[in-house]
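**Protein of interest**
===
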Amino acid sequence: MADDAVIRMANDLAEECLAVQAETGEDRLFMEVGDVLGASSQTLEEAFLTAIRTRMSELKGRAFLAAKLKKFREDNT
């Protein structure tokens, strides 16, 4: 299990990576970052990939809910 410092670093890096992905449109950039991390620290790589995946999953969940609500509102106006 990663320690708190590694988790903080992974979370910070995940936020930064998602911001760069959004700006550049490179939606698989996180995989490249993971490869770079894995070359020197498997622990940080795993924590980073977990942080990225949970954030990406949350974004997909929020988009799904927004689409559902939009459709509901359109159907009921």
